[in-house]
User: Which sequence fits this backbone?
């Protein structure tokens, strides 16, 4: 039976690898990918990214991926599969295929605005997804050593040290987070056990070394002290105003309101656990009412007020921003208290607290950096997925019906996504072939007409957004650089 379960685990991981391999195969290069494919990518490579940023590993992966198809397909699949594996490691159920499938479902149902800037865009993928993978491994290592007091193999310790260093060369906010969370781990180890863990010290030294190397990149001097056309560290009205604006608008929007689906699932599981908990009956009715109300206030407010009045479009109203923030604080407080009441195992409870803290801590560096986009909160979504999976394990409701239902849902999503992206791939190949034929047949036309791709809300700027990107698109597809294209909606009769 054990061997059979292990085989099912490996079969599940193989299926996930193949799914993401074909997703990468069907996904066209878009936007910055065309730029990286051209002269710009080679120039950045030759300059060792000195005039770009310190995201050295993300830049290197993107530079290689846009030029070597096989590398792009395999690396995309391997990184995506490993992401699901490390998510499941937090549950201590790595031999159970069911949890891989649940994690897979959560990863493909990620909000489309986040999906398009990570899994739907190779330049975004190679910066944000590996960065998150490194964050999760460091968090898992800290949880295992700090709360569970488990011994780890020499290989895992070495991997931890390597990730503490190489994980610093993807995204600035995750780079700073890795160092901050290791400082927090050292402090917690001192607080809980009155001793210093040498593994955390070594990890922190390596992490700080990587951070220094990243920010020694010459371009950060320009970003911090002169400003750049793409990034800066303050707003026109000042740094404090920028921090206040981000804390009361961007973070409530993207850490809470735009994650409402997965947060609603977490709330549902916690409410079920509260209902089943014997500790509930020891509480006064006032405490029970406040806890349940605090948990439900976020989805109720989102659906009946925030969304109805489109408050995301009224960030100029300070009172609305402050009220949104207050709702999020009430919800978070209720969640912390509910976890305290329903989770009996200290190590699990502490793990959930650390993960909740991490969703905010990883956003801390973002308060002084612009521009921000949905992709900056991909890591937050993944951490919420881990929290949901850990809580689901605590429910202990796994039986044949649940298993069959999850398998069916996972297969359904797999088929839907593969079919949809195959359709994108087919339409892209067809429209480019038609365009090349038209250019060859009518080389003197002022402009040519081409349909946009289907499901472009899952792709990052699949249609060129300016003359610059149209030229890059033409160069990548082997078309004359000066040809102009008019894009019409998919399915248009034009």
Assistant:
């Amino acid at each position: 039976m054990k061997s059979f379960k292990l085989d099912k685990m490996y079969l599940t991981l193989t299926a996930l690898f193949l799914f993401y391999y074909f997703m990468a195969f069907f996904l066209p290069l878009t936007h910055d990918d065309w730029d990286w494919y051209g002269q710009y990518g080679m120039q950045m490579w030759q300059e060792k990214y000195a005039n770009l940023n310190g995201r050295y590993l993300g830049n290197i992966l993107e530079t290689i991926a846009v030029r070597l198809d096989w590398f792009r397909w395999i690396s995309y699949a391997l990184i995506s599969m490993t992401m699901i594996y490390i998510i499941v490691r937090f549950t201590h159920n790595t031999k159970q295929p069911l949890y891989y499938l649940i994690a897979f479902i959560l990863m493909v149902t990620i909000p489309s605005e986040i999906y398009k800037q990570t899994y739907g865009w190779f330049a975004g993928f190679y910066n944000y997804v590996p960065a998150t993978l490194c964050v999760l491994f460091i968090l898992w290592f800290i949880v295992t050593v700090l709360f569970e007091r488990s011994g780890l193999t020499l290989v895992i310790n070495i991997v931890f040290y390597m990730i503490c260093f190489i994980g610093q060369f993807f995204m600035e906010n995750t780079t700073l987070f890795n160092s901050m969370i290791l400082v927090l781990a050292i402090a917690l180890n001192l607080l809980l056990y009155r001793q210093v863990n040498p593994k955390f010290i070594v990890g922190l030294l390596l992490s700080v070394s990587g951070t220094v190397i990243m920010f020694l990149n010459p371009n950060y001097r320009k970003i911090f002290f002169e400003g750049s056309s793409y990034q800066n560290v303050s707003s026109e009205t000042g740094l404090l105003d920028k921090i206040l604006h981000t804390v009361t608008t961007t973070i409530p929007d993207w850490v809470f309101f735009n994650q409402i689906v997965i947060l609603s699932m977490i709330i549902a599981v916690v409410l079920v656990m509260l209902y089943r908990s014997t500790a509930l009956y020891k509480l006064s009715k006032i405490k029970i009412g406040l806890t349940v109300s605090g948990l439900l206030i976020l989805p109720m407010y989102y659906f009946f007020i925030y969304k109805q009045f489109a408050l995301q479009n009224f960030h100029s109203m300070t009172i609305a921003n402050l009220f949104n923030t207050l709702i999020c604080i009430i919800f978070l407080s209720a969640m912390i208290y509910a976890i305290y009441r329903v989770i009996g195992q200290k190590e699990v409870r502490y793990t959930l607290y650390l993960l909740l803290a991490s969703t905010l801590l990883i956003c801390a560096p973002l308060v002084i950096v612009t521009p921000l986009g949905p992709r900056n909160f991909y890591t937050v979504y993944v951490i919420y997925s881990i929290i949901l999976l850990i809580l689901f394990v605590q429910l202990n409701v796994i039986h044949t019906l649940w298993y069959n239902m999850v398998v069916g849902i996972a297969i359904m999503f797999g088929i839907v996504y593969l079919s949809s992206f195959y359709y994108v791939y087919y339409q892209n190949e067809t429209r480019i072939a038609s365009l090349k034929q038209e250019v060859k047949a009518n080389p003197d036309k002022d402009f040519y007409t081409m349909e946009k791709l289907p499901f472009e809300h899952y792709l990052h700027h699949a249609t060129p957004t300016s003359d610059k990107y149209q030229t890059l698109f033409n160069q990548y597809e082997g078309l004359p650089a000066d040809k102009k294209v008019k894009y019409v909606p998919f399915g248009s009769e034009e």
Summary: The first helix runs from residue 2 to 26.
